[in-house]
Amino acid sequence: MWRVVLYVTPLSTALFVVAASVLALVLTLWRSRAPGPARWTAGTLGSAWLLLTLAATLLPTQPLGSGGMAVFLTPGEGLWGPDQLFMDAVERQMILALQIANAAMFVPLGILASTTARHPSVLRTTLLCAGLSLLIELAQLLMAAGRVVDVDDVIFNSAGALLGAALVTLWTRATAAPKPSGRHAAGPA
């Protein structure tokens, strides 16, 4: 994950958000015209992204059970906690980049889960992804294999899923055909 963090810049973040928006728009338009194939493709892509996410977050950096891990249960502790006084600007920037990468990792999950659902819900998708993130952190804790267990990861992963699901909802509403209203809704009398 740290190798990814080195490439988190304002430009790469903006390009990622644009790419995620385009993905959400394409899948939303496709789902409105061919729901079955679009949902199947989104499910397949979602499964592949989930496997990639699990590999990125659960592959041990040390032998299982060897300890060597940090646990942060206070939100914002990495950026604003007491250790922050001893960090230089580069360290704070790296932690912020890590959290942006954590959010970005779950944006596609939010998009793909929303596209796969018969009746997409931003809340359901966000809660599903938050639960997944919590399970990942719990697995990292139980593995005791050099991973950092941090509540901020759950918060930023959930924020990424929320953004992904919101993009699908936004594009669904923006591309929906207008519904007739008023007295002309029923047609000519």
What is this structure's SSE topology?
Layout: H1 2-5, H2 10-33, H3 35-58, E1 70-72, H4 77-80, H5 89-116, H6 122-143, E2 148-150, H7 151-175
Parallel strand pairs: 1-2
Notes on the structure:
The chain is mainly α and 189 residues long. It has one domain. It is 69% helix and 3% strand. It has a two-stranded parallel sheet. The longest helix is centred in the middle third of the chain and has 28 residues, at 89-116. The protein is elongated, with a radius of gyration of 20 Å. 29% of the residues are buried.
What strand line-up does the widest sheet have? 1-2
Kindly report how far apart the N and C termini lie: 64 Å
String of helices and strands: HHHEHHHEH
Number of helices: 7
Residue windows where pLDDT falls under 50 for at least 5 positions: none
Tell me, briefly, the overall form.
Answer: elongated
The proportion of residues in beta strands is: under 5%
Count of extended strands: 2
Based on secondary structure, the structural category is mainly alpha
- Biggest sheet layout: 2 strands, parallel
Mean pLDDT: 88
What is the rounded Rg? 20 Å
Summed up, the domain count is 1
The helical percent reads 55-70%
